[in-house]
Write a structure and sequence with these properties.
97 residues; mainly alpha; 2 domains; 3 helices; rod-shaped; Transposase; WH-like_DNA-bd_sf
């Protein structure tokens, strides 16, 4: 049980240290708030694969895929209509003039 308590203290100390470092860098860079820099750091960690989460590119990829699916469904409907038309033409009795 002490290990878990000790680990908890280290984590809290680590978080405090990280926040202090981010705060100092934000001030040196003239960034308005520490939270802004913290979010940029998290975003970079996610985008680089160092941290789990949705990357910046994934929502754009999902949007593009949804658009492609919509276009493919439309093309499929057109192909079904064309196939029905030709099937009806083949089923018509041949008439000679």
């Amino acid at each position: 049980m002490q290990t878990s308590s000790l680990h908890g203290r280290r984590s809290a100390a680590s978080v405090r240290h990280e926040w202090s470092a981010i705060k100092a860098v934000a001030a040196k860079l003239g960034i308005g708030t520490t939270e802004t820099l913290r979010k940029w750091i998290r975003r970079d960690q996610i985008d680089s694969g160092a941290r789990l989460g949705t990357t910046t590119e994934e929502p754009a990829q999902v949007k593009a895929m949804k658009k492609e699916i919509t276009e493919l469904k439309r093309a499929n409907e057109i192909l079904k209509a064309v196939a029905s038309f030709f099937a009806a033409e083949l089923d018509r009795p041949l008439t000679r003039s």
